[in-house]
Input
Amino acid sequence: MILALVDCNNFYASCEQLFDPRLRDRALVVLSNNDGCVVARSAKAKELGVPMGAPWHQMRELARRHQILALSSNYALYADMSARVMEVLCAYSPTQEVYSIDECFLDLTGARPDAETAGRLLRAEVLRLVGLPVSVGLAQTKTLAKLANHFGKKRPEFGGVCPLHALEEPERRRLLASTAAAEVWGVGPRTRRALEGLGIRTALQLAQASPADIRRRFSLTLERTVRELNGEPCHSLMAGPARRKQILSSRSFGSLIGELPPLEEACASFARRAVEKLRDQRLLAGSVTAFLRTNPHREDLPRHFPGLCVPLPPTDDLRPITAAALSALGRIWRPGHAYQKTGVILGDLVPLENRQGELFEDARAPARSSALMEAVDRVNRTFGRGSLKLLAEGSDPRWAMKAGNRSPRYTTRIDELPRALAGTLP
Amino acid sequence: MIPDPFESSPCGARLEPAGFPSPAADFKDAAISLDRALISHPAATFFFRAGGSELESCGIFDGDLLIVDRAVAPAPGRMLLLVADGEFRLAPFSRLGRERQGELEVWGVVRWAIHRL
Output
């Protein structure tokens, strides 16, 4: 088996640079929801030493000195560009596992003329067709493909494609020896410290550890990591995304909120987003949980982190789900608290095909409900997300997140297209 | 309220029109889709808005909706979308002198300009 891990380089920053060429040579960072932390950096910003995940307010001095530009996240753009990348890549393999917004595994076993050539070709094609740079790691297991991708990205001699499976043994050992164990997929900070206690610091040392010993001291998961580092596949490629056990929709507010009505509007809006995901995956929800959170970092304010789960007859209808979420919210809300966040969790998920009728329900109700929800989906597909929604969401989202410096939604909004000038060339 | 006979009945079954079957049913075709007609490579196709009136002789007017395909190679007779000085620029292939072809970056090829009358 030969697997490829294909990963977009500086994905969010690259999307921004593709549609605004002035940003190409600039130090650029993209900030998380509410403009809190750095979630992507252009090559220049990396050179200046902006760390991933850094709170932006701590970076202001560095930003001012080097004129680092900070943009708010433009998720509509990133999601559309991600879909394009995945679409191009799926032509290269019968099996694609989309692992995150900017990376996927491909099974390149039997690729012609060979996996490395296929890897170089798909890298060139994504760049040509979609305009985004990717790196490719090739190896016999997912864990090694992840590492190979890391080498492909960091070491210019590979030209963006690292065929770890085809390297000579001494070269492989040298690469693994030069890599910290913490870089290995699935090795978190706590495991790293425990491994250091055993003298295991590099990926090569981890690969040479005894699997039985690792299982005894740590876990089956880490034993599998050791086996995978030695080229023994333990993690199979999932053809599709795993069916989820829960669907969560939640986000922090732009500012703290105390009164119930705006919290209800926010909660109804998260219910709608959760139902969109639910319907996308053709699932029904058997329970709805609403929760509230005060800011855990504000020790000067009263704290309150309540949640309440309401069971439902399995449904994907926005109306009963929103009603249940709002009734739960009304019961957990306490006056006198400044809430930072609310959210909705859909649980007890069952596939749509397994729907069971209720003994006392109107036999026409399911058909009416699904006809209505399909009409709502169609309207929102045609006119944009959230064009048709319940009045419970209100019309003025004062709880909306801060996105002070978002770029235009170049690929998903007809009134935000990039401009092309007809004029004399410079 | 008059009950709609084609609305689903209490037992869940739907009534279907039972007259003479439509002679056109076997020839039913999907409606015309502009997306299908104008876009050959969906993953590589992007929309732009034209600015300026210098290319009216080539059929591009200020405010036109441009359909740009990155999968199509630049060639004589084609309208190019270029990157120059940090901006997107439109130019016919012919106007791009041989010496400038290496210097300016071709972002894509404009396949259609949709113009409101």
Summary: Residues 32 and 66 of chain B are 20 Å apart (CA to CA). The longest helix of chain B spans residues 34-38. Strands of chain B lie at 45-51, 65-69, 79-84, 87-92, 105-114.
